[in-house]
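USER: My hope is that you can spare some time for a protein that puzzles me. I am handing you a single protein, as its sequence and its fold in token form. Walk me, if you will, through where the backbone shape changes along the chain. The protein I mean follows directly.
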Amino acid sequence: MQPENKIFTKHDLDKIATQSLIHNEVQLRLEGLSDALENPDSTEELDVSLLASRENPLVKIDNYLSVYKKLTLGEPIGPGAEAPAKIEIFKPYEKVVSEEHLGTEFATSIISADLYESYMDNRHPVGKLVLFKLDHSAGDVTAKDIVIGSNCVYGAIIINGEINPFSLNIANNGDRVIQEVQRKDSTEENGIAVEARLVEKNDFQKLELHTLDIDDDTEEYFEVMAELDKFIKFRQKSKSIFQEGEEYDN
């Protein structure tokens, strides 16, 4: 179709142009992330096998991805078996002070891990998990103290040439009523009174991962993307300074 044609102008040209811009931005961001995530500052091993602690936040994420995305953080080494996940740690890329919390310097860092296909013979990574950790600047640069909903709320899954940002939350399933003893009571609104109730305590905490939608979660979506851009620029600058120092030494 030609721009001067009527059938051309009948299309939603603004939307198509916006999608083109977003696609180009994503491609540049993917290239930047691939380079920025190449050399972590440190690594930690995490057991994600069937015997791993289900209370560990990263194990909860691994379990969620395995069930709902058919992905895992550990390299498959046999039927139902996974190698320990290699958790990649990056030093804070931004430090800020909030007017509401004077005296505290907040530091944002990145934690990442390779993603593998669950229950598959393919032992090569198919994507990347990225998590943001917000801590005070004197905090340890580690993934061992992650608390979902506290210092770790947002992240992204990078797979199939796409960046899918998400938010994390931990929800309690609540107590479950096993049995009740009831009697008729006209004074009650529904005509029934509960004389006794047997309740099963449920302390199980369920991970909730909400994929951010560009239309429904616009502000959070673009803020997560902006954080990834800041991380990329920080790593690029650090790499440049390191290379200049090596040239100077030589």
In short: The radius of gyration is 24 Å. The chain has one domain: 12-172+206-249. The chain is about 30% helix and 35% strand.
